[in-house]
Amino acid sequence: MSNTPEGSPPAPARRWSPSRPPPTTFEFEFDQRNESDIEKIVPKLKGESNWVNWEDHFYMALKENNKAYIRVIREDNTRPVRPDYLDTSESTVRRLLAVNAGGNEELVTDVVVRETAKERQNQNYRLRSNWQKEVDKWDQCNTRVCNLMFSTVEPVPASLIDKVENAITHD
């Protein structure tokens, strides 16, 4: 095979494993000090008369400041979904261990069940911790986008916007 992209073999797929942290939603640092002042770049939205101009400037300013903002607005990155946790009940763990032991329930002792349940609880803790970090990052980004949007809207159009909880809310 040649070394060209067309002739190269596909890169091996990376699999997630419990020992490696799951892929993140955001690989961006949020540092407002490095962002341009959006109020100076984007004209204030007055209404339909300057909607297209405002929308173009707003999009470009967000993209310049942090591409994560655009991903939230376009719904490329939605709020992370709560993970599916492992069942740690004694009966479920015992059944799983029996299946793994080829159906030989004599090999499944109470000690092994307790240890396996504890391992599953630790995995659930890691899942929950990683998920919460992702949710916090997404919420931070989403809140920042909402604040930036409202900072570029005149009072009259802003008064028509009601109960916005995230940057992708639309009717």
What does this structure look like?
This protein is mainly alpha-helical. Helices cover 49% and strands 0% of the residues. It has a domain at 42-154. The chain has 6 helices and no strands. Helix 4 crosses helix 5 (110-150).
What's a concise summary of this model?
The protein is mostly helical. Helices cover 49% and strands 0% of the residues.
Determine the N-to-C terminus distance. 52 Å
Which secondary-structure class do the elements indicate? mainly alpha
List low-confidence stretches: 1-21
- Evaluate the radius of gyration: 24 Å
Q: What share of the residues lie within helices?
A: 40-55%
What is the 3D form? Answer: rod-shaped
Count of beta strands: 0
Compute the number of helices: 6
Sheet bearing the most strands, described? none
What does the secondary structure layout of this molecule look like, with pairings?
Layout: H1 38-41, H2 51-65, H3 67-73, H4 90-100, H5 110-150, H6 155-160
Sum up the structure in keywords:
6 helices; mainly alpha; 49% helix; rod-shaped; disordered N terminus; 171 residues
